[in-house]
Amino acid sequence: MMKQTKQMNGHRSKLRRSAWLSLMLSNLLILLVPIMLGFLLYIKVESSVKSNTERYNSAMLEQLRLSMESNMNGMNLLAEQVTLNPKLNYLLNIKSMNENEKSDFIDFVRNYLEHYRKMTGSFVNMFYIYLPNSDTILSPGVMSSPSIFYEAYLENAGLQYEEWIALLNSRGNKAFIPLPGNGLAYVQSLPLLETVDVKGTFIIMLDQMQIKEMFRQIEAVNASSIYILDRNHKIIVGTGDELPEELLGKLLRKLDQKQGLFENYIDGTISMVSYTSSEKYGLTYVSVMPQDTFLQWVNQIKTWAIIILAVSLIIGVTAVVSATYRGYNPLRRLALIIKQSSKQERSPFDNEFDYIRKALEGSMYKEQELKSMLDRQLPVIRANLLSRLFRGYMEGEREEKLKALQFAGVEFVSQRFAVIYVYTEDIAQFSHGQNEHQWAFSQFIITNISEELINERHRGFAAEIDRDRLAILVNFRAHREESSDQGSNLDERQRLDEHEELKTIVGSLKQLIAERFKMSVTIAVSNSYTGIERIEDCFMEAENALDYTLVKGKSSIIFYKEEAKFTGNYYYPLEMEVRLVNFVKSGDKENTAKLLDEIYTKNFIVNPISPERGKMLFFNIMSTYLKVKNNINNFAEEDETDFDPAVQLLKLQTAGEMHQAALKLFNRLASSFQTETTDRGLQKFEEMVRLISNNLSSTELGLPFIADYFQVTPQYVSSFFKKYSGSNFADYIARLRIDHAKRLLVETSYTNAQIAEGVGYSSTVVFIRVFKKLEGVTPGIYRESHLYNEGEVNVR
Hints:
The chain is an alpha+beta fold. Helix 13 packs across helix 14, helix 19 (589-606) runs antiparallel to helix 22 and helix 23 packs across helix 25.
């Protein structure tokens, strides 16, 4: 008995350690599948029917808006032609009618209103003008008093005479006024834009049947009620009862959006409310449709779902028993294979699932290590791919490119792209150091900020182009449903919206970088294009836009779309160049500066030119500078005799910097001409010569020493000395020192080292080299030859 009990307990323990129990419980969950499928099917179908109905209802309402606007365009054209007629302004001021003025009224009716009648379409029933000063109604072919006109044309239209008189005296500017019987009138006070001193009223009676026919087409399809609201949110035309106050209030809160839809309870029934707005005419089109009209199919599907659920329960019970037996045997065999191949012992407390899991964890750990290494390399891979994509170096078909980018974590949400190019000009205030680490850290900050700002509404991917340059690919999220009947107008509106989005993004980016991180950046932005193949064009436009830093200045936001218009030629006529040359040669620094300021203002402020032409302008100005400078033999440049102004200009980034550099160069050039006309320079030159003679033995004697003594720049000393001495400063000192050394060689027995030190050379080698260069022989040979000559003289 005890033996049997132990066997039963062992069997139960083994069963608990087996995957059999887990499989049984898992298969029992299959019974939940029919319930879930039926429920999800019902929810999905209901949602699908509702979604399709909403889209269809919105499309019908949009079609109504377009149809109404199409007819109203003709009405608007008629109103503009009539109200802007100069003859009408004259008739408005006539108070009493004599024969001549009566003739003017008749001429206006015959010559103008009859002509304007040809412009009316089927949408316009009639139009007429009421002139209160003369109490006259003017209409095509008709001139009469209000009472006669009413009896002839409006008495049977369902409009009371008092109501019509109130309509004639209404004061409004392009207002739609509802009439009895769902009629509609378009009223315009005269003169235009006048609402106080009104001298007349222009009224267009719209055809009720046309409007009702448009409404009837939608009502026949979805049994909805249609309303049109004016700018003041008053119903001017409607097919149903008045809108409830609660629904109207909810609708008004949503009218900041051009179109939309929402649900609302009306008389205890859920109704779907769709609306769309017309900005041109200030009208809002509203459709109210009860849900009961489109949910009847959902109830039928619900019945079928219950039947499917019952059938699935029967199948599920059978599948549980069968699947448990079939599923356990392969699992047991797999555990056995793993045990034999890996020789991993199975714990007595583990079932087959746990055993297989632990065996796989070892393999997965190694896989995670490999994946971690790959993740660390992904930013580098992504930056490289984006850089190649920007420059058009990425090979392969479109699908291959997208697959490679997805591998690096770059997934696009639409086919609309633009590029933002960020050039970091200065990080001195952000970081005291300017090493590579600090530059990399600054680029890291800008990358994260830019991607975070863009990813709030779109997708952004940044790639470092250079140490101080960053390109960010902007992938716009699709926000409009494209349709073939809108075509290029939709595309243009989308570009405008994307342009505004880019303005907001780069404005926030620049402000955040400047205020929080104290970095100075220039941001260039391309146009937006469709297709991955246009990304290269976006990048090229952004790079080209950055060139406009020359015109816009540093720390600017430059849009290629706005700056590419600068295509005019620069202004620098020959007579202006002649004037500039004359001012410089006369030493007139003030007029020279004024003329350069005038050139800068006309080319970069009044009529901005492109960066390329701006550089050409400054090269031309530097050409003038070199022409004048080459006429002065004793004028030395700042650093070296091979100073190239064009090279120096290319180092500058903005037109303002180039202008200041030109002012500085021309000012120095004019000063040199001015100096030639004075005698004070001669006195200073003599002081320089005395200072050189008194310090000839000093090793510190040179341009910096003289410049420091006279409180000027070394460049000035070099040019000044050459002007008055006719020789180079260094050559002059070398000659003095060698002449003094020759006397010491003859008159003393000092060594070369002592003589070199005595004449200001710190190195004997340098002294010997300079001596041989000037005298043609070394100091030793010079001394020997001189002593030999003296010996011959003594012998004789």
